[in-house]
Design a protein that fits this description.
The protein is mainly alpha-helical. 50% of the residues lie in helices and 7% in strands. It has one domain: Orthogonal Bundle (Cytochrome p450), CATH 1.10.630.10. The chain has 18 helices and eight strands. A hairpin with a 6-residue loop joins strand 1 and strand 2. It is globular and about 60 Å long.
Length: 394
């Protein structure tokens, strides 16, 4: 049995050679879980990943770990969300939250996102260096989702720090503490919004809880609020950073978008495919033996579906390691998942990436990296493929 591919520190710096090796061995590979005796199925092929997203796999992590004491104290609002339940519970929750999370609301956010991006870069001085993650890619998405949910401005930096802690791979004490802090804060905010409703998404969700015939429970309301807050910005921060880095490493493509800004929206899908912010999808496991593209996955096996690997599968995307802004099937990428769990916030994330790139290329046409690429530091996260910092010269 092969050792776990996720214990090598080099994996986090550049995970694509690992993905290529795994896919070459088998697009669905049984390997060890963190070097231990337990096994997992790692899905790296495009067709196999697309099938896994719709297969009879469970997302109920609580059921999987029920007889495996972990010693963790993760808050229930984080441990059990819409991402960790199966139909019919998932179907009901997604239907209810979709009522409040409408495309019209996202379209209406575009002027706000544009003004926010322009305001953030207005603080930058030409000729200086900035950290694009700290000064733009980080604050913009968290501000947008906080605005959408109605989180007061004064609390947004604190919310961002808790959310960052939730993705601290391996630091269980830090993750657990952040889960309680964030859930406690959101519970208080729900109380405030219930007493003083406004036009925020959180107030809409409270109305679903209080008035809808098929209503949310109090626990479901809290878990949805926390999920939307966290999922609504962490991966978008990574997507913005990855997209800017890819363009800085491909100056001809950068120049093309600079002179043809109308092409930016169409380039977003290829940028998401090329360096996907969600590298390994959230937890899945096989409650019964399941066949994935001819490979038998035994009952009880965790299944790690890797969109980052699937989006570099040459069987789907010829010459996959090349950035091709004219790639005809780029929109087929799996960066937002597929099937019933596909990201609800995909249109919002794509809009944020598009708007940030447009503003950057308009305001700072000479943007360039401030350090060699081998000095860039990547987050130590299985789920998120994103930079810790992205120093750029204006």
């Amino acid at each position: 049995m092969a050792s776990s591919p996720f214990t090598d520190p080099a994996f986090y710096a550049d995970r694509y050679p690992t993905y290529t090796a795994l896919r070459t061995s088998s697009p669905i590979l049984q390997t060890s879980l963190d070097g231990g005796a337990s096994t997992m199925a790692v899905v790296t092929g495009y067709d196999q990943a697309r099938q896994a997203f719709t297969a009879a796999l469970s997302k109920d992590a609580g059921a999987y770990f029920a007889d495996k004491p972990s010693g963790r104290s993760l808050h229930p609002a984080i441990a059990r969300t819409m991402l960790t339940v199966d139909p019919p519970e998932h179907t009901r929750l997604r239907r209810l939250v979709t009522k409040a999370f409408t495309p019209a609301r996202i379209d209406g956010m575009r002027p706000y996102i544009l003004a926010l991006a322009e305001g953030l870069v207005a603080l930058w001085e030409p000729g200086t260096e900035v950290d694009l993650i700290e000064d733009l890619a980080g604050p913009l998405p968290v501000t947008v989702i906080c605005q959408l949910l109605g989180v007061p401005t004064v609390d947004r930096s604190l919310v961002r720090s808790w959310s960052t802690d939730l993705f601290a791979t391996g630091d269980h004490a830090r993750i657990d503490a952040a889960s309680h802090a964030l859930a406690g804060y959101m519970a208080e905010l729900i109380t405030t919004k219930r007493a003083h409703p406004d036009r925020s998404l959180l107030s809409d969700l409270i109305a679903v809880h209080d008035q809808d015939e098929d209503r949310l429970s109090e626990d479901e309301l809290l878990s949805l609020a926390v999920l939307l807050l966290v999922a609504g910005h962490e991966t978008t921060t990574a997507a913005i950073g990855n997209a800017v880095l890819a363009l800085l490493q491909h100056p001809a493509d950068l120049a093309h978008l600079r002179t043809s800004p109308h092409c930016i929206a169409g380039a977003v899908d290829e940028l998401l495919r090329y360096d996907s912010p969600v590298s390994i999808a959230t937890w899945r496991w096989a409650p019964d033996e399941v066949d994935l593209a001819g490979t038998s996955v035994p009952a009880g096996s965790p299944v790690f579906v890797c969109p980052g690997a699937a989006n570099r599968d040459p069987a789907k995307f010829p010459d996959p390691d090349r950035l091709d802004l004219d790639r005809p099937n780029a929109a087929s990428h799996l960066a937002f998942g597929h099937g019933i769990h596909r990201c609800l916030g995909a249109p919002l994330a794509s809009a944020e990436v598009e708007i940030v790139l447009t503003v950057l290329l308009q305001q700072f046409p000479g943007l360039q990296l401030a350090v060699p690429t081998d000095q860039l530091v990547w987050r130590q996260s299985r789920l998120v493929r994103g930079l810790v910092a992205l120093p750029v010269k204006l």
